[in-house]
């Protein structure tokens, strides 16, 4: 009997010695192809919503689009594109835009549907509607235009702030940031430009429905919850929650900054920055109570930066990054962030976070390397110096697209978990 047990133990030892890759750590990346594309420091890469295509936007040079499965280059569009590329949510269209012009492109053919070349003022943003039948363009003169994709014309224009000269005759367009977001039912438009109010417009008649205001300072951000039921407005010292259907005031969080909705719209994540400690709290939107508070010695930031796709975990930034269990408030994993300091901005992290679509892996990227961490246990899965940011997962999680370490190249890797 003893010999039998010893022989079995010996077999197990030899098995795990020869096959060390257990179910605990099967994550790996296999290079599929590299592409001669120099996106530089300001370029962009990304996948279409269905994952069939990926693109590279070279700053002020061109847009290139490939098929994901066979890596076939479909087309190249030359242009001085500066501010990015955004897919429509249905995946049919790709908008590329620069300072005063843009194009709406058919993603399969590369055919330009129409040009946005009528703007005399700088374009600040372009956002698609949920149905992809409209998109909003915001300009430096604080005007938001809502375009119809079928007609190629502007349906309505909204003036949300009067442009004027500020202190020391500085143009306030250089100080204020304009944003706009469609409601989930695409009947309303929420706008903000860092002034006293966030304005809510009716998309059918173009009229103002309501103007949201905080008690303290200018509104720096206004956003819908993912389910469209709530609106959050944030100033430098206060976060306010509103009912999106009735415009009713729900609750004020004085002293709370950096709010973020969980992707399942269960929580509003909040950060309270006192003199010594940074406290992260989760406010339950259903019963409208604080669900839990996290207190950790996190220097520098400590803000909630990213939620997992299933909203079961989230990441906080700081000198150390933490992955938290949203139900228990316990830390799951921790890692060292790459931190810099400047006189104007103070301490900041150079790392960017991106969850794998299955929520089990966190990608941490900077301009030196990629790192991959488990969101289920305290483990680093992989250090990957062969690539650097930007880096993105395909929607199905089967591929990773990133800037290669070699200058002037991007690369596609196959993901195994």
Compact description:
The protein is mainly beta.
Q: State the distance separating the first and last CA atoms.
A: 39 Å
Tell me the major beta sheet: 4 strands, antiparallel
Q: Please give the oligomerization state of what you see.
A: single chain
β-strand percent reads over 45%
**Helical proportion, percent range:** under 10%
Principal-axes shape call: globular
Which radius of gyration do the C-alpha atoms yield? 24 Å
The number of strands is 38
| Strands in their spatial order, largest beta sheet | 1-38-37-36
Mean pLDDT: 86
Helix and strand composition category: mainly beta
Low-confidence stretches: 1-6, 9-24
Summed up, the helix count is 1
Task: Describe this structure as you would to a colleague.
- The structure is a single chain.
- This protein is mainly beta and 417 residues long.
- Helices cover 4% and strands 51% of the residues.
- The chain contains one helix and 38 strands.
- The strands form ten sheets. It has a four-stranded antiparallel sheet, with no helix packed on it. A four-stranded antiparallel sheet has the order 2-3-4-5, with no helix packed on it.
- A hairpin with a 5-residue loop joins strand 4 and strand 5.
- The longest helix has 17 residues.
């Amino acid at each position: 009997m003893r010999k039998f047990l010893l022989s079995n133990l010996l077999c197990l030892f030899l098995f795990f010695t020869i096959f060390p890759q257990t179910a605990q750590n099967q994550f790996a990346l296999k290079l599929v192809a590299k592409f001669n594309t120099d996106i530089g420091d300001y370029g962009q890469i990304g996948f279409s919503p269905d994952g069939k295509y990926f693109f590279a936007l070279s700053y002020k040079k061109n847009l290139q689009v490939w098929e994901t499965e066979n890596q076939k280059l479909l087309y190249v569009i030359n242009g001085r594109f500066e501010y990015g590329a955004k897919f429509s949510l249905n995946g049919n269209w790709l908008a590329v835009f620069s300072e005063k012009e843009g194009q709406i492109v058919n993603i399969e053919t590369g055919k330009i549907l129409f040009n946005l070349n009528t703007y005399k003022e700088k374009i600040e943003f372009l956002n698609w509607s949920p149905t992809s039948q409209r998109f909003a363009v915001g300009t430096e003169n604080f005007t938001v235009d809502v375009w119809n994709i079928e007609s190629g014309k502007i349906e309505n224009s909204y003036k949300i702030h009067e442009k004027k000269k500020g202190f020391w005759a500085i143009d306030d367009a250089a100080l204020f940031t304009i944003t706009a977001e469609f409601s989930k039912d695409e009947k309303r438009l929420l706008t903000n430009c860092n002034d006293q109010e966030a304005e809510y417009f009716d998309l059918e008649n173009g009229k103002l429905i309501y103007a949201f205001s905080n008690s303290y300072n200018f509104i720096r951000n206004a956003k819908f919850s993912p389910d469209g039921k709530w609106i959050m407005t944030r100033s430098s010292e206060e976060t306010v929650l509103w009912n999106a259907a009735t415009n009713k005031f729900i609750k004020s969080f004085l002293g709370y900054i950096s709010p973020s909705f969980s992707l399942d719209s269960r929580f509003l994540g909040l950060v309270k920055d006192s003199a010594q400690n940074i406290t992260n709290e989760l406010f339950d939107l259903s019963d409208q109570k604080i669900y839990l508070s996290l207190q950790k010695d996190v220097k520098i930031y400590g803000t909630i930066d990213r939620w997992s796709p299933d909203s079961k975990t989230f990441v906080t930034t700081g000198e150390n990054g933490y992955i938290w269990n949203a139900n228990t408030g316990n830390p799951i994993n921790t890692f060292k962030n790459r931190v810099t300091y400047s006189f104007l901005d103070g301490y900041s992290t150079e790392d960017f976070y991106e969850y794998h679509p299955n929520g089990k892996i966190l990608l941490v990227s900077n301009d030196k390397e990629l790192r991959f961490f488990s969101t289920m246990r305290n483990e680093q899965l992989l250090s990957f110096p062969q690539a650097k940011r930007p880096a993105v997962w395909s929607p199905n999680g089967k591929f990773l697209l990133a800037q290669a370490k070699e200058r002037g190249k991007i690369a596609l890797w196959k993901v195994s978990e």
